[in-house]
Fold:
Amino acid sequence: KNQVEQSPQSLIILEGKNCTLQCNYTVSPFSNLRWYKQDTGRGPVSLTIMTFSENTKSNGRYTATLDADTKQSSLHITASQLSDSASYICVVSANVDDKIIFGKGTRLHILP
Amino acid sequence: EAGVTQSPTHLIKTRGQQATLRCSPISGHTSVYWYQQALGLGLQFLLWYDEGEERNRGNFPPRFSGRQFPNYSSELNVNALELEDSALYLCASSKGGREFAYNEQFFGPGTRLTVL
Structure:
């Protein structure tokens, strides 16, 4: 069964600290993996997209990694800011049947 | 460049009524996608339209339907509303001509549907 599991479900850190969010998937055959940031009440915004051959992708203070062998991805946020408070959603696409599987997201709270 | 727009922002209906949600894609995008995001759940894929045709639909009952107009804008219709239809409905658009899995989707702000 195609699944995307994210952890932790929620995370609270102090402003300026780093954090890492995890995404494990069982989607097959794998096409690509995206990380989205979703502010409360807003639509998701794409942060990174990685295909099978890519194992790291950066977007400013956001760095995503992908291990296609273990089917794991992480999103590392450096020097967190209050504006990073949001839900972060991992999305995995399969090569067949037009499948896009969304994780439930990690809710990140940055405290001043 | 204007992003994906959705209307209305909020919609309140009673059980059994019909709801119509609207989406305008980014200029130049021919594909429109609809998703449901219920409280505490991940996004659930509803429908995909490309060049005016329904290309794929998720695991939702037939009372969820929609269409895409010649200008690539789209409507999502939900008939016989049920309480559990209360959710944020997100529309996304992308350039067409590629497989679903490769299209980068840009999301709108969503319509919050509340069924009483």
Remarks:
- Chain B has a mean pLDDT of 91.
